Structures are given as structure tokens and as C-alpha cells.
Amino acid sequence: MSVSNTSPREIEVLAHGSESCRQLMSVPGIGPIIASAMVATIGDGSAFRRGRDFGAWLGLVPQQISARDRTILGRISKRGNSYLRMLFVQAAPIVLLRALASYDVLHLGNCGVVSGSVNDQHPFW
Q1: Which end of the chain has fewer CB atoms within 10 angstroms, the N or the C?
Q2: What is the largest CA-CA distance in the chain?
Q3: Residues spanned by the domain of 105
Q4: Which of the two residues, 14 and 66, has the higher pLDDT score?
């Protein structure tokens, strides 16, 4: 089965059948497509000591070099999988919007400023 012939429904079924994908999908913003792409690309992730190392490999954050009490940020390499990087970049605004919407409900709801929709609270959306 090639990637171009795989439907989103088939990816979802395969992702729900994998324990690694199910664990990744428990993270907010990670769905079946990103989870299956991550597992296919990096396997169990044991090649990375920290999440930041994975982000640096993928090209999302600068490489970090630590020596004693100094931390030096290197360049963003963009060496990793470009498809996976694109998925993360496309998902980031949605995750941020959801976080902001839940923040508004939690904080504005407590002070009595509750509106009918998110668009009423933030006219620039």
C-alpha cells in the first residue's frame, strides 16, 4: 500500500491499531496522520534523548550545545523529514487557537465576561 493510495480513513484505522500511535495521539494536537508519520519516521524515538533534540533534528528549533554553564543555540538545520515538519507547522496554529480559546473560557468566564462565540471576543479572527 503506497502513501498516495492510502485514504485518511485507512491511516486512522492503522494508527488506532498501533500502541505507539495511540500514545502519541493522547497529546493534544496530534492526530492519526501526524502520529503515523512520526512512528514511520522515527520509530520509538529512542534516537533522541529529549524532545528538544527531536525538534532540532526536525528543523523546528535551533540545535542546542551546552558546555558547563553556557548554552549556545546553533542554527536551524532542517535536516529531518520535510513532510513531518510540514505537518507540525500546519498543526501549530490550530493547537494555539484551541489553547487560547480554552484560556478565554477559563479566565473570562470566571470574571463574568462571556460572549456567544470566540469571534465576538477576538474580532481579528
Answers
A1: N
A2: 54
A3: 82-125
A4: 14
**What distance in Å separates the CA atoms of residue 36 and residue 24, rounded to the nearest whole number?**
9
114 part of a folded domain: yes
* Full-model pTM: 0.66
Predicted local distance difference test score (pLDDT) of residue 64: 74
- The sign of the torsion formed by the CA atoms of 109, 97, 33, 84 equals negative
**Domain contains 103:** yes
Report the domain count for the chain.
1
Q: Which band of pLDDT confidence, cut at 50, 70 and 90, is reported for residue 4?
A: low
Where do runs of H (alpha helix) occur along the chain?
A: 8-16, 19-25, 32-42, 51-58, 82-110, 118-121
| pLDDT(46) > 80 | yes
Go through the chain and tell me how many residues it has: 125
Residue 64: inside a domain? no
Nearest to 21 by CA among 2, 1, 45: 45
Q: Is residue 121 part of a domain?
A: yes
